[in-house]
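TASK: fixed-backbone design
INPUT:
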């Protein structure tokens, strides 16, 4: 039970705080060896963090769902100006921003780059990149763009940074928020866009893992433990998103920069100490 609570807490925190959950996993496995993880619990925790995004941004998400079906209806009717409203433009921003991540995910699978995804030195370098982004965010000028007038080149920039964040150690939330602020988005809107943009990626990963669970034919864990882990991950996920929204307004992202520098140092040490010995 305590292990389930711990995993739920770690998932909720590292999934959203700009410190890279995948990078931490590689560091942990390098130092302590590959730990056995329950696939059912992993799926459960992914869907819990997805719920966190829905809870915090529920109004925006329900609006996007409504506008999605409305846009399809307008397109079928031959209307050419169906993406002029702020709500429809936000929908198009999410669609455009998701495309680079889909291409990156397929590229990793087709090119069989899984070894790169588990390389401790890749993690160390990418954590340094994440740290740089975190320090720069506080120094960037506050933009004014929102869904009403954000340029699509900013959308593409954010999407490409989310795609790059497939590399372990490069934080997805940190990269996309940095890209949004760099592209002139209002800071609060940059956070909202970054997290809503993460929905397709989290959902896709969860669905693929769920298919593996179905293929296995059993949960392999007490359902009550799944429930507890789900609640812990969802609650800690909501808290993490709220914390980021607070720190972005007060220009305190350097805190994450310092943390990532320390994590990068540990990764370099772990790579030298353990990887080179095997």
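OUTPUT:
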């Amino acid at each position: 039970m305590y292990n389930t609570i711990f995993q739920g807490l770690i998932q909720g925190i590292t999934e959203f705080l700009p410190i890279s959950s995948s990078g931490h996993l590689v560091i942990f496995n390098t130092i302590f060896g590959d730990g056995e993880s329950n696939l059912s619990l992993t799926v459960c925790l992914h869907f819990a963090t997805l719920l966190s995004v829905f809870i915090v941004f529920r109004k925006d998400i329900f609006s996007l769902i409504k506008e999605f079906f409305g846009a399809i209806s307008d397109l079928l009717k031959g209307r050419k100006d169906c993406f002029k409203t702020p709500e429809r433009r936000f929908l198009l921003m999410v669609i455009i921003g998701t495309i680079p991540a889909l291409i990156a995910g397929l590229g990793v699978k087709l090119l069989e780059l899984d070894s790169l995804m588990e390389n401790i030195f890749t993690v160390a370098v990418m954590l340094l990149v994440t740290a740089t982004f975190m320090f720069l965010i506080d120094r960037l000028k506050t933009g004014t763009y929102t869904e009403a007038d954000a340029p699509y080149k900013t959308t593409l920039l954010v999407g490409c940074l989310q795609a790059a964040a497939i590399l372990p150690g490069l934080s997805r939330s940190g990269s996309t928020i940095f890209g949004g602020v760099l592209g002139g988005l209002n800071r609060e809107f940059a956070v909202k866009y970054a997290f809503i943009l993460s929905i397709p990626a989290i959902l896709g990963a969860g669905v693929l893992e769920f298919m593996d669970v179905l293929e296995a034919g059993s949960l392999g864990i007490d359902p009550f433990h799944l429930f507890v882990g789900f609640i812990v991950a969802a609650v800690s996920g909501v808290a993490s998103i709220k914390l980021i929204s607070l720190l972005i307004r007060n220009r305190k992202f350097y805190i994450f920069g310092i943390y990532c520098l320390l994590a990068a140092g540990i990764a370099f040490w772990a790579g030298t100490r353990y990887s080179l010995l095997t």
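COMMENT: Residues 6 and 101 are 29 Å apart (CA to CA).
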